[in-house]
Design brief:
alpha/beta; 18% strand
């Protein structure tokens, strides 16, 4: 099972390993993206026998800006995430097969950020809708209850329209690291156990798919150059 987070220090990755994660996506925001930084994290992770994938989270205020950034980063990393919240950005993200994950679609909204149209588009283009545990962790009272309701609604729509879903700790330090069992238990309070099980597997599926496409002999999915 793979997490998505911003952990980079050795003690943080040692805890990740201790909590039985097999690997993770280490992401940076588009304004700070550095392959050199990823290689440093990769060296530490691999010394602990953790599989690590590179990711970028794109922030954009306008659709044109988002399209430009997607083109810029698609070939530079494994996983392309788009920070949601703006409904136009949410829609553009789920309409593009170059995007892997729509992150925090409910961010700063009074609704969940996903409707039946966006859920159908996410299914069609295989863009995963994110359940971000860290967003919940830093809320309390009414805001926490409302976020949980948003998660439940998005899960209901995703299941109905067969859109992919991912869950992540989005941990930024050692105190925010969660175990696979913590996230599974949380998901079980939001949706059916079988659907929760599918969600837990999807991070790995995305990573393996993008890793396959990044091979030099792969032109596109299903088309490979084979040396005789």
């Amino acid at each position: 099972m793979y997490d998505i987070n911003r952990l980079e220090r050795r003690e943080e990755l040692e805890l990740l390993k201790k909590l039985r994660w097999k690997g993770f996506v280490y992401y940076m925001y588009d304004t700070e993206f550095s392959l050199e930084k990823f290689e440093e994290v990769k060296d530490t992770a691999e010394s602990l026998n953790l599989k690590v994938f590179s990711g970028v989270k794109i922030r954009a205020e306008k659709v044109k800006e988002l399209r430009k950034k997607i083109r810029k980063f698609r070939k530079k990393c494994h996983i392309v995430m788009v920070e949601g919240g703006n409904l136009k950005i949410n829609r553009e993200a789920v309409e593009r097969h170059e995007v892997d994950i729509l992150s925090t679609p409910e961010l700063n909204r009074k609704d969940s950020g996903i409707n039946h149209v966006l859920a159908r588009l996410a299914s069609e283009h295989r863009v995963a809708i994110e359940i971000n545990f860290n967003e919940l962790l830093h809320k309390d009272g009414y805001e926490r209850a409302r976020t949980i309701n948003f998660f439940r609604r998005n899960l209901m729509l995703a299941k109905k329209y067969k859109a992919p879903v991912v869950i992540c700790s989005d941990a930024k330090n050692i105190y925010e690291v969660k175990s696979l069992y913590d996230l599974r238990a949380f998901l079980n309070t939001l949706t059916e156990r079988e659907f929760a099980k599918e969600i837990l597997l999807y991070n790995k599926k995305i990573c393996e798919f993008r890793e396959y496409l990044s091979r030099k002999n792969v032109i596109r999915y299903g088309i490979e150059v084979v040396e005789e």
